[in-house]
Amino acid sequence: MPRKTTPRRRTALAATAAAPLLLGLWAAGPAGAHGAPTDPVSRVYACSPEGGAAARSAACRAAVAANGGTPFTAWDNLRVADVGGRDRRVIPDGELCSGGLAAYRGLDLARTDWPSTRLTPGTTVTLRYASTIPHTGTFRLYLTEPGYDPSRPLTWSDLPERPLAEVKDPPLTDGAYRIPVRLPADRTGRHVLYTVWQNSSTPDTYYSCSDVVLAGGAQTRPKPSQAAPATGPKPSGTTPAGATPTGTTPASTTPAGTTPASTPPAGTAPAPTAVVGAARTAADTGGASFAPGAPLLAGGAAAALLLTGGAALAVRLRRR
Questions:
Q1: Is the C or the N end of the chain the one with fewer CB within 10 Å?
Q2: Band of the pLDDT at 33, cuts 50, 70, 90?
């Protein structure tokens, strides 16, 4: 004999059916998103779907192809757990830019045309590290040694034993950490600024490669798209702050609506309203801009709609 379906049972069935959908939305939130350098622009950030013209560069297209066509949507999630400072033992040579993660292997391609930022040797610059979820931890910045060959895979022997800069628990200001670093005066041409962020609030360590061209390096520059106002970093997809896609903007040149990659004069602080390089990169990459928490807001709105719909369904079923 068929079992009679009561209003209470119908309500329970409706809630059960909606639960997997809600769980899927919650899982898709930015809980696994944290950060990456945006100025000088990192490879993962430049090649993300929000990278504007940089994402359309030959290097980024090749990186996505090496990933099997999967874009670098999670630009802020290149992390490895339980490294504990053993970077040189855990991350293999030739896989420094991907952290040894298959999902980011395209970033390890040895190329001389990665989107890059032009810097001046012997000066102090400020690396801006956009963070979508704040953490405590230590940043270590390395610059490839003299004689580095960008046409060969990056290895630990290309980096000095001691970092150029090491900063513990910097403040998060306007969605970014700012790390000052003094560049050596003996480097010219194309190099890699390698950033390691070892969290103390989580077991994770983040790795990233920012390609830079120091005065005297040859480079090409794509035609810039019309700029749009930049706002602030958003999880898993933002405009590279301070990048110059497939080429660079000289530090001494400041196009309209842009910001140079050099450090502010002594006694002044970085602009507190946005990641400084965002405006410059927007001019170069088609005007994509930061929008904090967009995926979270979208997921929350969708979850709210589903919850509302589920409640309405439950009420209707209860009245039958």
A1: N
A2: low
The string of pLDDT tens digits covering residues 47-101 is: 998 888 999 999 999 999 999 999 999 999 999 999 999 999 999 999 999 999 9
Structural domain that includes position 13: 1-32+293-320
Beta bridge partners of 42: 210
Q: What are phi and psi of 78, to 5 degrees?
A: -85, 90
Contacts of 60 by beta carbon, 8 Å cutoff, 6+ apart: 43, 46, 47, 51, 54, 115
Q: Do 171 and 132 belong to one domain?
A: yes
Considering its fold, how many domains does the chain have in total? 2
For 268-305, what is each residue's pLDDT tens digit?
Answer: 433 333 333 333 333 333 333 333 333 333 344 444 43
Q: Is residue 261 predicted with pLDDT exceeding 90?
A: no
Q: Are residues 92 and 202 in the same domain?
A: yes
Tell whether 147 and 120 lie within a shared domain: yes
pLDDT of residue 123: 96
Whether 70 and 170 share a structural domain: yes
167-174: long-range pairs with CB below 8 Å, 24+: 167/138, 167/139, 168/137, 168/138, 168/139, 169/136, 169/137, 169/138, 169/200, 170/139, 172/131, 172/134, 173/270, 173/272, 174/232, 174/272, 174/273, 174/274, 174/275
Q: Contact 71/49 with Cβ under 8 angstroms?
A: yes
Residue 76: HSE in the Cβ half-sphere, 13 Å Cα cutoff = 29
At residue 152 the predicted structure's pLDDT band, cuts being 50, 70 and 90, is very high
CB 290 within 8 A of CB 231: yes
- pLDDT value for 230: 39
181 backbone dihedrals φ, ψ, rounded to 5°: -145, 135
